[in-house]
Write a structure and sequence with these properties.
- The protein contains 4 helices and 11 strands, in the order H-E-H-E-E-H-E-E-E-E-E-E-E-E-H.
- The two termini are about 30 Å apart.
- It is of the alpha+beta class.
- Helices cover about 20% and strands about 35% of the residues.
Amino acid sequence: MAAGLTNKGYYTTNHILPADSIAELRSQAITLRRKGHFEQSWSEKIVDGEAVRFDKEGVYACEPDGQDYYDAPDLIMYMSVLLQTLPIALNGEAPTADMDLSNQSFNAKLAVTSPGGSKYPLHIDNPQGLSVGDARKLTCILYLNPKYQPQDGGKIRIFLSEGDDKIVPVDLPPEGGRLLMFWSDEIPHEVLATAPDGARDDESLDRYALTIWIPTTNVAAIHNDASKFSSLKDLMFP
């Protein structure tokens, strides 16, 4: 895990939770949506060196917290366990010890991307960093799509460098149980069209993802020019 983040900029596994647990988490996410917790999702992209907010068409999200425990107990428990264990584990590994990930605070978003071609434009989760008080360092995404099929689309595409400023895209399907982690302030990514041939109101094709952002207490870790991934921002957003 630590080696993957350090050497490649990301880490992923498909076996973080069993299929029945993922199905239950999806069911609880649907409950939150039906109770009106979701609203239009937005993100930021770099335009002429500045971060510009934009709405994600066909994407809706909420920010689950302890108040949602009775409607989504397993979702809240997963978030709590991840926050209490992952930062400690990575801080204890030599490759990522200097990241000083915090288990005292976090941001979370539960998002659903509608079928019919909805997607996320290219962006970096934390483009401005400390200039706006944003210390998010690690993005952790759990996909809640236990019946995912290749034709459902919605792959996340992350962009990495491979010497001589060569950009290499890596596509990962959002299959249920996949945990994906990458550096929030450095790794450009986008989401490709979700179920492009599906009907917008076909809820079985909805793409659910739970994202947790873990901050660092080491200000030098944010947008560190010495990082092997620091050039990606300029290469992808010239």
